[in-house]
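ok so i was messing around last nite and threw this chain in just to see what happens. nothing serious, just curious
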Amino acid sequence: MALYDRLGVGYSGLRRPDPRIGARIRAALGTTGPVLNVGAGAGSYEPHDLPVVAVEPADLMLQQRPPDAAPAVRAIAEQLPFVSGGFAAAMAVLTIHHWSDIAAGLAELRRVAAGSVVILSWDSSISDRYWMVEEYLPASRGLDRDLPRPAAIAELLGGGTVETVEVPADCTDGFYAAWWRRPDAYLDPAVRQAISGIARLPDDEVRLGIERLAADLESGRWHERHRDLLELDELDAGYRLIVSPPNG
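result:
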């Protein structure tokens, strides 16, 4: 069973693409299609002005794709059923940490894409210091330890650039650090279920962390500790856009 056949309940409602992040991804993909979206889930960040083919292993996520979404193939990143160079570009958004063999999956993206390969991932040296991780759910640091740093991802793709993607305070995509200025959101079990970095933790650890957060919010301790965050409009929580240029 694919991981998101267990974690993906209600995913499409809580993980709505943020238009500002989407604009960055769209610009990196270039002007021609078709585009391959690997680990596509419910279709977030797929360009609407280019032909797209989606790859997703989880039936539950495929079922949440809207009726007008791009056609989808049930497959895995490490064994893409496409000819070499068959796509003008390829993308993978917040998904490579779930692949069983990241290097093999990245090699497959590079193989099938004649143009740019665009990856949204994160730098754990920064994300591990995020307040929710550092103060309430430190066990999150134990997940995804095999995820390469962004520069290493670019190297595995044959070269490329790494860009900081700051998270807006009103981010519409409910990934882990999307709620950095809205801490009450983490008290909602549905929000936590849509964040794999929380949903994969032992229930007891999550319960204790959320109880501490709820107490700090009620007492005002959280707001006192993090009043500097309340003055910011965006935050560097470690998310990075890796863009590998066209082959050749």
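not much to say yet. The radius of gyration is 18 Å.
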